[in-house]
Amino acid sequence: MAKLVLKIEKPLNGYTKVINKIKIAEYQFDSLISLAIPLNSQRKCKLNFQKSLGNPMPNIENSIINKSGILGFRIGLDLLFICNPSYSSFAKKTVPVLKQAFYITDQTGGWCGVVVDGDRVIEMLERICPLNLSLKIFAIGNVKRTVMDHLNVIIFRQTEKKFILFSPSSSSGSFLKSIEISSRNI
Amino acid sequence: MLIDHPLLGLRDSSEFIYMGDAKLLNRPNWKSKNSKTKFIDYGYLRKNPAGVHKELWYHEQGDRSWLVVTRNTVTHEILKVELARYLKRKANAK
User: Fold this and answer.
1) Which residue in A has a C-alpha nearest to residue B14's C-alpha?
2) Are A146 and B62 inside 8 Å of each other by CB?
3) How do the domains of chain A map onto residue ranges?
4) Does B41 touch chain A (CB under 8 A)?
């Protein structure tokens, strides 16, 4: 019997391109999970988050990056996401601890990530994103869920001119096209 | 149109879905007297005013919260935005 090996395929196949000096690249991650805070469990979840990831639970629309490089962000009163960019013991060690307080859903296959980086990135995003992206309003480390064209997007500001965008993997092709076209049209 | 979300600040109305009159928060008790009449009123009858109106908006492309937006339907001026969950809890606590 032939030996089968499962191979991970990313939604955008590791896409990388530079358009108008904006670097557009697929953000590859090992896992992405959502954490929902059960009713009346804020305190328990705060303690659990600190214990599992080593950082305090972020406030709404803020994020943390822990010492292992795991990105955690909160997009609502009772909803957080955790994105683990590298292969590690996250699933075996951290997730079981988080499960003691949060409701957890594995959404790894449901999302694709795109990094946009460059001097003119704000000009490109302004064409498709309804948010105010000025640094005063949307600071480094902030995260928001919004729409770009008609697509649902979570936007995370990593530096002044570098953003990570998460969008559903089922429409990743359309999302990438929208970013490419906006980059060409600035 | 911009909606001043109580937790997230000013957000474009394209992130929201209009879900109707905020009277939908006050579901009648099915055990009460005349519950059939009350449910017909709850399900079908709306005042639809030309002026100040309390509306339910769902922040679908955001934090998935339900808001009660007090809006003037003639001028589109938004007078007040509140989290529906807090209003409902406050009403239930009374």
Assistant:
1) A147
2) yes
3) 16-28+110-184, 31-108
4) no
Name the residue among B10, B61, B65 with its Cβ closest to that of A146. B61
Alpha-helical runs (H) found in chain A: 42-53, 95-98, 121-126, 172-184
Res A86: pLDDT: 81
Residues A32-74: tens digit of each pLDDT = 999 999 999 999 999 999 999 999 999 999 999 999 899 999 9
Question: What's the topology of domain B2-26+35-93?
Answer: Folate-binding fold (3.30.2270)
pLDDT number for residue A4: 87
DSSP letters spanning A16-40: EEEETTEEEEEE--SEEEEEEPPTT
Subunit contact B65:A77, Cβ cutoff 8 A: yes
Query: How much is the ipTM here?
Result: 0.80
Residue of chain A with shortest Cα separation from B62: A145
In chain B, where the domains are located: 2-26+35-93
Is 3.30.1360.120 the CATH classification of the domain at A16-28+110-184? yes
> A147 and B15 in contact by Cβ < 8 A?
yes
**Assigned superfamily of A31-108:** Heterotetrameric sarcosine oxidase (3.30.70.1520)
